[in-house]
Design brief:
single chain, mainly alpha
Amino acid sequence: MNNQVAIVVGAVGILLGLFAVVASADFRLVGEHTGYSPEQPIPYSHQLHAGKHEMQCLYCHFGAERSRHAGIPPTSVCMNCHEKMVLTASPLIAKLQESYTSGKPMEWVKIHNLPDFVYFSHASHVGKNVACETCHGNVAIMTKVQQESDLSMGWCINCHRDVNKNQPEEYGEVHAPENCSGCHR
């Protein structure tokens, strides 16, 4: 009889604990981080660079054309403009210069992060002319980048279904996968 009471009390405790986690404001499903906007080592403004100066996403995130990952640009990309031409005396640029001369990369915090069990390729999306804004939102108006879309499986599948139903001619013969193996390999 005592073992049964202990089991029931333990089960109730576990259920209450799970309820508390789910009810908390910080609970999110795996991969769902809408609104996530961490502090960065330098307050980089996409509004200034992509917006005002109209720099293309692929200038800095050049890996997106050929790789699964768009990649965080190396400091050398920043120094293409900031080494001799733009705000060279700024204390923020001094951090870039220190990173560049020391060879120690800036420790940027990744914002858009999918679970490990999801296979996503930037190259296949960029190759099909999917605009960066489709998933990342309009970063050209963001002073501080945040995750706009929830990037959940349902969100991705709905986009794939919409593309396949409404825009197949834009993407040629290869359509967006709607089966499990398209994204889970």
